[in-house]
Design brief:
Blueprint lengths: L2 E4 L4 E4 L3 E2 L14 H13 L4 E3 L8 H10 L7 E6 L6 H15 L4 E6 L8 H13 L3 E7 L3 H9 L6 E7 L11 H8 L2 E5 L11 H13 L4 H10 L4 E3 L6 H9 L7 H11 L4 E3 L4 E3 L13 H6 L8 H9 L7 E5 L9 E5 L1 H10 L6 E6 L2
Parallel strand pairs: 3-4, 4-5, 5-6, 6-7, 7-8, 8-9, 9-10, 12-14, 13-15
Antiparallel strand pairs: 1-2, 11-15, 13-14
Helix pairs in contact: 1-2, 2-3, 7-10, 12-13
Length: 376
């Protein structure tokens, strides 16, 4: 297993860990596969993937409970990362959330405690001060951010004197490489570990079949799969580690095996050229909002619903709109081209529904939105 360092104390962690979104349920508990999940986690640990990332919101807390069971007899071996939800970022709520996560994880400390999403309603200074206090009391070892822009990272850093931001977790894969413009080089310069979630683009690997076919000959040269090639390319980047999700034992073993692949400079450059893509700007009224079936989450279909925020998302579309007016786009939305010219739309919105409505609200529906287009 290849290793990376994290934190000012240079803690060593595997370059390939385990992402747990959806294990034990998405936003409500699902216990139907508990035993299979526990077996998978132990297998991953045995393969050297001893970095495990979860969150209080995953499975309504059940995912943390499963991780707690899995690490119970080998806590000293495992680096545990979890995340606090944006609605819990006030000092009082954050302290309570940390205690609840510790209880579910059956541990007396969390290795990396991350702000899951920014919350414009709560000053980052308040959240960071509370995280620092948790470090001082030994409840957490390292402080992290997730889904953070460069400006938000810098603002959080400015709140800290002695402690540092150890890691930033964002989506990074061969389809979405947008962080390479500013966030990744900044983290590399400041020795902040970048944790790439969805490194296999939720099974799409690189955005579509055409790109996949171009990568296959390179994968054959290394006697590996295209998925392993993608992971190897990502962890080749300075300061980058990945946390792919896996359920099947074969996928766990394959993910761990990607650590053994050493790409040549020429092949790495070719992969980079094949997967390079630019954002495309599309009129918002040419995009149709579709259900989020993967996460079984309700979505807003109209700007009126989004403004009212009837499902109580935090931050709300209106709150995110304020950030977007200030020039912040937390994460790129994704669309897929439609093949039905009679429906009145050109694209389906397949990821980033709250951010889409925030953009519409921020710019009155008149400004084109930057998107990534996934191949069908």
């Amino acid at each position: 297993m290849r290793y990376k360092t994290i934190g000012s104390d240079n803690t060593v962690t595997p370059a390939i860990g385990i992402g747990c979104m959806g294990l034990g349920g998405y936003f409500t508990p699902d216990t139907s596969a508990d035993q299979d999940i526990l077996k998978m986690l132990h297998l991953a640990f045995d393969q050297g993937m001893t970095f495990v990332d979860t969150a209080e919101v995953y499975g309504g807390g059940h995912c943390e409970e499963l991780v707690g069971q899995a690490i119970k007899d080998r806590r000293h071996e495992i680096y545990v990362a979890t995340k606090v939800s944006p609605e819990n970022l006030s000092s009082t709520d954050l302290l309570a959330a940390a205690e609840a996560s510790l209880k579910r994880l059956q541990t007396d400390y969390i290795d990396l405690y991350q702000v899951h999403w920014p919350n414009p309603k709560i000053p980052i200074e308040e959240s960071v001060d509370t995280l620092v206090s948790l470090v001082k009391t030994g409840k957490i070892r390292h402080i992290g951010l997730s889904n953070s822009s460069l400006k938000e990272l810098q603002k959080a850093q400015n709140c800290i004197a002695k402690e540092t931001i150890a890691a930033v977790q964002v989506e990074y894969n061969l389809f979405d490489r947008s962080i390479e413009a500013d966030l990744l080089p900044y983290c590399q310069d400041k020795n902040i570990t970048l944790i790439a979630y969805s490194p296999l683009d939720q099974g799409h690997i690189c955005g579509g079949s055409h790109c996949y076919e171009l990568l296959e000959p390179i994968a054959k040269r290394y006697n590996c799969s295209v998925a392993q090639l993608a992971l190897a390319w990502l962890i080749r980047q300075t300061g980058v580690m990945v946390i792919p999700k896996a359920v099947k034992p074969a996928h766990v073993i394959a993910n761990a095996g990607a650590s053994d692949i050493t790409l040549s400079n020429e092949d790495a450059e070719e992969i980079g050229q094949i997967t390079a893509r630019n954002l495309v700007e599309i009129p918002v009224d040419r995009i149709r909002v579709v259900d989020d079936t993967s996460a079984q989450r309700q979505v807003y279909r109209t700007i009126k619903e989004a403004r009212a925020n009837v499902y109580g998302f935090s931050p709300s579309p209106v709150e995110l709109a304020e950030d977007m007016r200030a020039g912040k786009l937390l994460k790129t939305v994704r669309v897929q081209r439609m093949n039905d010219p009679t429906c009145g739309y050109d694209y389906d919105l397949i990821e980033g529904r709250i951010r889409y409505w925030a953009w519409v609200i921020a710019h009155g529906g008149t400004k084109k939105i930057p998107v990534l287009i996934r191949e069908s």
